[in-house]
Structures are given as C-alpha cells and as structure tokens.
C-alpha cells in the first residue's frame, strides 16, 4: 500500500478512542475510510476489523450481532444506511465497552440520521473530516501549493494526482455516487434526476446571497422542494450555507444566506472560487475547534441593508474573533471594512489575497491567505 498521509485529526481521535466511540463524517471520497484504517495494525479494507455495510456478507453478520474475533478496534463504514443503526451500534458498544473500540464512518451527517434505536448520547465524539487545506498539505505552504489546491481542490485523490483528466473523470463519478447512491439510499426523492441540474447550478451561486426563488424558477419546481433539496445536499456534505452576522449598531440583513461548496475546484470563476476556498478553510477551523475543544464556533458573513458587505466573520462562543475579506488583488481595500470597524466589536480585520504583499492600513491587515492561516494556526 502507498504511504498514507497523516491527517490533522489523527491525534485527537486516537486519544478519544481510549474511552469512547468516534464518529467520522464528511464528504464522499474525502478520505474517511483511509483515515480510519490508519488506526489498524495493517491498514487495509481486507482487514477483518473493517466492516462495510455495503458488503452483504458483513451486513448479515452485523444484523446477527456478530463481530470478528481477536480484534480490539472495529471500523463500521456506511452503517448509517441501516434505519436502526444507532440501536445496533449502541448494543455493540454497551456489550463490549471495556474491551473494544469503534470508529463509525459515513458520507453523510451522522448526527442527523438518527432513525430508530436508542440514544447514543455520551457514548461517542463526532468529528467532521475536511479536504486538505494548505497547512495540511504543507506546513509552510507555497504559491504552488495554493495554485494546486485552487485548481484541483482538496480531496485527496485529485489533489495528490494533480492531473486534469483524472480530476474531470473523478468529478463526474463522485457526483453520480452522491446523487444515485448516497441520496437514493437515505432520502425519499422522486425527481432524483433534477438533483443533477441543481448540483450543476450551485457552483454559479457561490458567494452571493442565495435566492431559492431564482432556483425554483430555473428548475420549475416548488420553493419548498428546492429548499429541501439544498438541505439534503448539506446533509451529504456537498454544500454548506452560512447566515449573516447582525450586530446592533448596523442595519444588518437577517434572513439572507450565502452558499459554498465543499469542493471549490468546480467553481468556474476565479473570484468566487477563491472566496469558497477561504470559506472552506475557515469552516474547517471552526469545526476543528468545536470537535476537539468543545467551543461554540460559527462562520458568518456581514452585510447591511445598504449592501456594504464583508465576506466572513468567525465567532467563538458567540463573540466575534476576526473578520476576513477576500480579494484577488493586493492593493484596493474594501471600504466597507472601515465602516464596520467603527460600528462593530470585531477585534481584527483581514483582507486576504493570492499574492505576496503584506501590509497594514488604518487597522486592516492586507495579507496573503497562505500566510494568514499559518499565523492563526488554522488546521
């Protein structure tokens, strides 16, 4: 087997396995199975401790309450496709709590799919595995690392291969599997072919306030249907939405949301792609702080009724920590930053770019994004 890159969640997951089960969720093909296998003595999908629900023979044994012998750690992959999976897992855990450890993985929000079974509250810690970020790819990221990630995305296979033909084929296959395998297995969607049209349209909606009304007219379906489909894509880790931040001293918008994709490489325009790239890094930071430290983290955007806007605000325990504006250029500072600086309690303002210049003007730090993520210790 080729050498496996150590992922950023390795240390905290290893520590948690000493006392509890670990759930690992995240997008399809983000590396959840490969990551889980690294906890086995010999990482391989043929290892008897790796149990994939999609394997009929494995499924039969699990439903009988059977586990292979002489193993200390078990990996249960995609078991959330079984309606009563939580009760089944609870039984395994409670019966073998002092002897066995369990990692549960799935390409959907494992905290959402709670059909059947008893509560697992207090029996597991949940981690969300993200694509490669710049610092995970290289502790001292270069411009080449930035360009590689912007072009091929952070999913391990296309990123590490760095080949355009492979990336195109991988994209098509991944989308088909998300829609026709994952969503079909977990959701009741009759017009499933229309989900492909929606998935193809979402890259064009990145960064701007999301209009469900425009999408419903484009797809010619009901407003509620589009909203439900987007919720499904969120549960499958295909996209995510962020809400506005509304401090009292500004007339902030309250209901608008902005949408981003977990795979920024399919966004056609360079500006929205870079903004999505930054959004994914900041979301990864928020999820890491929540999943490993227990802080309440939130990623928001800032926009008022006069259309002054900042791309991102990161909140920790409901208090703003810093704000980030994305620009492809290095010189012109968004004037909205100075306006919000006077009227909010946000302590730090950054404008990030893809270049090399690093300077400060009237309290705004203009800095290459690859440098900022190192200074902020983003994973």
Number of domains: 2
Please summarize the sheet with the most strands. 6 strands, mixed
Helix content: 25-40%
What structural class is derived from the secondary structure elements? Answer: alpha/beta
Task: Output the strand order for the largest sheet.
Answer: 8-9-10-11-13-12
Outline type: globular
Taking all Cα atoms into account, the compactness measure Rg is 22 Å
Low-confidence stretches: 114-118
Note the run of SSEs as H and E: HEHEHEHEEHHHHHHHEEHEEEHEEEH
Distance between the termini: 26 Å
Rounded average pLDDT: 92
Summed up, the helix count is 14
The total beta strand count reads: 13
What is the percentage of strand-forming residues?
15-25%
Structure summary:
By secondary structure, the protein is of the alpha/beta class.
Molecular structure report:
The protein is 38% helix and 18% strand. The chain has helices at 10-16, 32-37, 56-63, 85-95, 134-137, 143-152, 156-161, 164-186, 192-201, 212-219, 223-235, 270-293, 336-343, 369-375, and strands at residues 21-25, 50-52, 73-77, 101-106, 124-128, 239-242, 258-261, 297-303, 309-316, 319-326, 349-353, 359-361, 364-368. The chain has a six-stranded mixed sheet with strand order 8-9-10-11-13-12, with helices on both faces. Strands 2-3-4-1-5 form a five-stranded parallel sheet. It has 14 helices and 13 strands. Mean pLDDT is 92; it is low at 114-118. Strand 2 (50-52), helix 3 (56-63) and strand 3 form a beta-alpha-beta unit. The protein is α/β, with parallel strands linked by helices and 379 residues long. The protein starts with 9 loop residues before the first helix and ends with a helix. It has two domains: 10-128, Rossmann fold; 134-375, no CATH class.
